[in-house]
Design a protein that fits this description.
- The protein is an alpha/beta fold.
- It contains nine helices and eight strands.
- An eight-stranded parallel sheet has the order 1-2-3-4-5-6-7-8.
- The structure holds zinc ion (ZN) (2 copies).
């Protein structure tokens, strides 16, 4: 099995103290590509440094919606400038989180639009985080894609089937996390079964959301194999084949990883 983990946080507490071991276990489990995701400006240099050191790890630059209030100065120009680094292959994570509301909603929306503009300008995919904010996320994505096409992925997808259809219509990919393995995730499982395989990615969002049978542990990229196996069984597909498809999708979407 050869996999890509489209979304992890290798610099977060729980992983960064043992990054070498975490990467070794990922490789043993067949993880051949990992995307290390930024959430704050203070992480950018560390995240890029990991990607410079490890040939199978790439970086994004962006500001999580939780952090929109603390980064009023991160605009499109700043994102575009940092994204010029050869190991930066995406923009984000950015989006809207009305579940926690850690940042003012107007600020979240403004930050999201700045990231989408950076994605349009660089043609690097936007990594979208959306929670309890489907309507606004859909409206903003429609408007911004309407100004000019941009590639992207809805990460850690937990939204409705209707939202999945909107995202697919806009050309987005959908990334499935370990949540799909949870007993109470029936709605997500129903959606995940019918997603077109050529738009499907898998991720861990490590150190969060460890899938069954690792629940309660610190999540790590190695566990993306369990999510992929579960998803394959759910969809009635061969797990190795689904790993290949999702990895190929990852490299097609994040095209700069092929450089
Ligand atoms: Zn997220
Ligand atoms: Zn994340």
């Amino acid at each position: 099995m050869k996999l890509a983990d489209s979304h992890c946080h290798l610099n977060y507490k729980g992983l960064f103290e043992q990054q070498g071991d975490v990467l070794a276990r990922a490789r043993e489990s067949g993880v051949a590509a990992m995307l290390n995701i930024s959430t704050r400006e203070s992480e950018w240099d560390d995240i890029i440094a990991t990607a410079e050191r490890e040939s199978d790890v790439w970086a994004t630059v962006g500001i999580h919606p939780h952090e929109a209030d603390t980064h009023p100065d991160v605009d499109t120009a700043k994102l575009v400038a940092k994204a010029a680094h050869p190991r930066v292959v995406g923009i984000g994570e950015s989006g809207l989180d009305y579940y926690y509301d850690h940042s003012d909603r107007d600020r979240q929306r403004a930050s999201f639009r700045a990231h989408l503009a950076a994605s349009r300008e660089t043609q690097l995919p936007i990594v979208v985080h959306t929670r309890d904010a489907e309507a606004d996320t859909a409206d903003i994505l429609r408007e911004e894609v309407g100004k000019g096409a941009l590639p992207g992925v809805i990460h850690c997808f937990t939204a409705s089937g209707e939202f999945a259809d909107i995202a697919l219509d806009l050309g987005f990919y959908i990334s499935i996390s370990g949540i799909v393995t949870f007993k109470n995730a029936k709605d997500l499982q129903e959606t995940a079964v019918r997603l077109p395989r050529e738009r499907l990615l898998v991720e861990t969002d490590a150190p969060f959301l460890a899938p069954v049978p690792h629940r309660g542990k610190t999540g790590e990229p190695a566990f993306v194999a369990d999510t992929c196996r579960f998803l394959a069984q759910l969809r009635g597909e061969d797990a190795d084949a689904l790993a290949d498809v999702t990895r190929e999708n990852f490299h097609r979407l994040f095209a700069k990883t092929r450089a």
